[in-house]
Amino acid sequence: IVTEASENLQVECYVIGGFVRDFLLGRGNPKDIDIVAVGSGIELARKVASKLPGKPQVSIFKNFGTAMIKHGDLEIEFVGARKESYHRDSRKPVVEDGTLEDDQKRRDFTINALALSLNSSNLGDLLDPFDGIGDLERKIIRTPLAPDVTYSDDPLRMMRAIRFATQLNFTIQLQSLQAITENKERIKIVSKERIVDELHKIIASKKPSKGFALLHKTELLPIILPELTALEGIEEIEGQRHKDNFWHTLEVVDNISETTDNLWLRWAALLHDIGKAPTKKFHKKIGWTFHGHEFVGSKMVYKLFKRLRLPLNDKMKFVQKMVLMSSRPIVLSEDFVTDSAVRRLVFDAGDNVDDLMTLCEADITTKNPRKQKKYTNN
Ligand code: ATP
């Protein structure tokens, strides 16, 4: 239908971006398809809709020059091929009409710049000017243009690079990693909402620790989540050391991610020790303590949610509660459900009871002395 519509209008059109990437990777159900027209994307969308059964409505986003048709569960987005240039203080590009290749150049990564022809003259041909196919095979995140330009133009791409590396288990090309580190401060021009979107996707991945280790390595983490970075390091006084709570946290998050997809429980695992940075003390008699870290931590959750403009709703309260009780079940692991305070929290957690148990179990696993040894060298 799209081919026919584009021929009626005499414009070339291609499927581009995530759909092509995921199709070639054999990744699950697509939720959206991006179609680029070398001409008006809005006109093409209208034509396509007029040919589809039931003539679905076309949503038009004039400011962006895009249009969208919902077809069952699928969102089909249409855009005219464009050339972009940027001003230093904004992520919003100056846009002009362009060729397919101009449009591929404005894409963030080579694996997201692949285009599949919908034109009858070369239907199904893959247009890949930056060797995105090679990068899919080598499992590499690489930018079509010089990395420094790509990340500086739109710093959200730094988060996207780390997010895709985590979701797809790809490696970020060294030059890209360096450019991200050099441009890290520019993340400040990105809205909190966009940063949080990417954080959610990292946390929802199979192995979130990969993303957090990359955020740490590129030095974006202390800008976005300084509470987590503050957990890093092992101090030694009078021969006594404590474990590295940052790397321990990442292990807890991975553990829990093996057993639950609940995003908020994963957030809770990520934040379960944040109160330990400000409460750390060394006592001559008892050694290192983090007394009261659960209470301090749950207050920190509130501030962190507020700062990141995450909604201060039941989800936040759930995370706070999990943080508040994060070390209790370990002490109580034997008769976990018989403790009234814990039982009340389990009750409050409602549908999340199973997840709650999982969080506790995940933490207990990492409290296992054999596993802990890996992190403490103690
Ligand atoms: P997912 O749906 O998993 O997020 P996706 O690749 O479809 O993956 P979208 O955010 O929907 O991601 O973007 C669609 C396409 O638009 C991308 O594949 C990429 O080509 C392009 N794109 C999106 N955001 C940017 C950006 N900040 N800079 C450059 N290109 C981008």
Mean pLDDT: 86
Q: What ions, cofactors and ligands are bound?
A: adenosine-5'-triphosphate
Name the strands of the widest sheet in spatial order.
3-4-5-2-1-8-9
> What does the radius of gyration come to?
24 Å
Distance separating the two termini: 66 Å
Alpha plus pi helix count: 21
Share of helix, binned: 40-55%
Total beta strands: 15
What structural class do you assign from the helix and strand content? alpha+beta
**Poorly predicted runs:** 329-351, 368-378
Strand residue content:
5-15%
Query: Which term fits the overall shape?
Result: elongated
Largest sheet: 7 strands, mixed
What does this structure look like?
- The chain is an alpha+beta fold and about 375 residues long.
- It contains 21 helices and 15 strands.
- The strands form five sheets. The protein has a seven-stranded mixed sheet. It has a two-stranded antiparallel sheet with strand order 6-7.
- Helix 7 (about 155-170) packs parallel to helix 9, helix 7 (about 155-170) packs antiparallel against helix 10 (about 210-215) and helix 14 packs across helix 17.
- Residues about 330-350 and about 370-378 have low confidence and may be disordered.
- Adenosine-5'-triphosphate (ATP) binds near residues 17, 18, 107, 156 and 157.
- Adenosine-5'-triphosphate binds near residues 107, 154 and 156.
